[in-house]
Amino acid sequence: MRDHSRRRFIREIFAASVCATGFRHVPKATACLSNEALSELCVIARQPGTSASAIIDVWTGQIGTLDFSQLPERLGRVVVWDDVRGSGALPTEIARVLFAIEEYFGIKCDIGSNAFAHMGHFTEFSLLVDALLQAFRPTRGDATGRRIAVIDLSSCGLTRLGWMHIMPSLRSYYTCIIGVDFGAPELREFDAEFRTPHGLCARALETMHACDYWLLASDEPISGRVQLPADKRSFEFTKSIHALCDCLTFAQNDTHAAIASVAKQRFASFGAPA
Asked: Taking the complete model, does pTM exceed 0.85, yes or no?
């Protein structure tokens, strides 16, 4: 079965750009199909929130719509940056990723403290999540009862790592996992695997339904407009995530009511445990 996902489109565009630019200026070079000089690198970084009553962390991959700069400091932020890099000069490659995370997501990384890195097979990356969450396991008695992860499922990286690989580790730490995806109906024009009406593939639907709760966003529910330019979509999507987290913060233990309330105002649909 083919890999039908946003990640596949991104990989193909990335590969095409490398072939178009990397070999254009090297007349005697020949394309090498070997990946022996490449390795999968993953860096996970977290900036904890300042809330004293609940831990709510917003998770995203390095490629996505969410804008962390719009979120309040009381919310935690976690970035999963998985990429394909040269297998040599590992410290340099990690340093570049750490710099990029600080520049684009505003998280100042300290390896071994709030950030962990690993180069190798993507199935081993879950160990990073375990290490990161263990480092931040709460000691405050008032926070241990409510630990919520809000995941931007529409975000991704450049390796085969998916949110389904990460979710088992999240369950050992968080009491509730909420997945938010963004429907892209226009993808149906490229591939029939992206299903009606919201343009999600089978893998995206499977991941969404693996969460404790899920919400689906699209242009019209979050803005009242059918098609948004990228910058407006990012603003409105982040605004919706902000509204969701606000409801969760003040809902105390009634998570279902909080999600149902914000879903009616800002999302196309939502789902809850049976």
From this structure: no
